[in-house]
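Example with several molecule types.
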Amino acid sequence: MSAAAPARGEPAIEVADLRRTYRTTTGTVRRRRLEIEAVRGVSLRVAPGELFGLLGPNGAGKTTTIRVLCTLLLPTSGTVRVLGLDVVASPREVRRRIGYVFGGDRGLYDRLSALDNLRYFADLYALDPRRQRQRIDEVLELVGLQGRGKERVEGFSRGMRQRLHLARGLLHDPPVLFFDEPTIGVDPVGAREVRQVVSELARAGKTILLTTHYMFEADSLCDRIAVISKGQIVAEGTPQQLKARVTARSVVEIEAYGIPEATVQRIRDLPDVEAVTTEIRDQAQQLTVQAREGSQLTGRLLQILEGVRVERIVAREPTLEDAYVALVTAP
Amino acid sequence: MGWWYQLKMQAQSGFVVMVSLVQPLIFASIAMADQQAGNRTLPLLYYALGAGIMGIWSTVVFGCGGALSWQRHQGMLEPLVMAPAPLVLVLLGITLGTATVGLYSMGATLLWGWLIFGAHIHLVDPVAFVLAAVVMIVALGLLGLVMGSSFVLYRNANALSNALEYPVWLVCGLVVPLSLLPGWTHYLAYILAPTWGIEAMRAAALGGNPWLSVLWCAVASLVYLGLGVVLVSNVERLSRAHATLTFQ
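Resulting structure tokens for the full complex:
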């Protein structure tokens, strides 16, 4: 589409001190009003053609930020611009220039065919009727759904639905794309295909803002990443820069059975320990302990874990995931 | 906008078909059996038309509320609102599509009356009848738009649908002639399109002048459209402020 490009040097996406509060009520008889601050002063700039990742755990404020950018939510305060257009003052102008692809099963008409889903949105985006057919064929081919257009969406697998989401988001050829956890719930092969399309779009010069909580996804796709936690950006940089934040650390992974919470807390309280995460894998618990570089941790950990069945204990190099964990678990 | 796709979807919904097809048949059967047992003077076609429009109204009330709740549940409200097309046109496609499905009711009750009760289906002015039906469908779609705007803003507003079904049947003279109802109800009847729609269709089918009723139905449509445009633009802003576009 013939979209307005930002002025030279101007960011394609600009968020300045964005805040968004949700009001809700609790209680049955005595209703109490609650205010939840989902986004607390987020600022970011994405250059034209950049693939920018917004990384954070559930409830960190990623989706709220992307919804404000996509004109689906009004900010409580702050300024949000896409291609120089204010999302509050000019929502329709912004909508013409952006595509939004979100993850999950919903967001498609199940009783319609893929073709009808796309035709409907081609009408809503005022695509030239003479170009519609050709454009729909193009996007179906791009996402690998050629030949499946006449099938009803209700028979589509999760991966196929996600690809149809993608096709719909690309129909009007927007210069700016927002992907909100596009691979969530998709099988590994499907997820790889989705990532490939995102990668191709970035190579084609689209500006992309991608939210994810998959580290490797952000690492492999993004030019720059912002880590968001509790509604605030806690770090920003290239994947390498973020990794560098934890290179001065050592990481110990422990696989064990039935570690009591008090023991985990004792590990947390060790003087050199920076972060501890626990994860259940099958029957076992996996403990990842990050500590200052040079800490002779293994012996002390084994001492604390005395009486616990330890299956495996290994020291390894820190990864982007470790950097992320350190950032989002910081008090 | 999107009328055809919405019609296609609604026509495949078992619930919508049930509401617009089966329910009016039950009411038509009761009314026509009553007419035959009571030796009433009004022809069977009179009752069949009333039952048909009852079905169209039920489809609009449940369909519009249900359709918008369903769109929210399906995660469709966000992509629809995010499209650059004016939201009022997007919603109009949904409500008009739903109202059009209601035509099932009219066809079904006429056929039912003819097959089971031997109703004489002779339309005095078929052209006026078809025109009256089209104008009424548009009017009901627009009335659905006015209601639908609240359904976008409030997640549970479609619960109102239950409360709106029966009173409108009564007030608009679909069940009993308006002349039998208290005078104050007539003011309500005059602002509701089904009143003029049934008047026009009955006049076109049974003899009489349908055109004034068609005109009033069209005037009601314009009023609903104006109201719908104002409401939807406010609702869009409020739903963005209150975050009501999602199901959660």
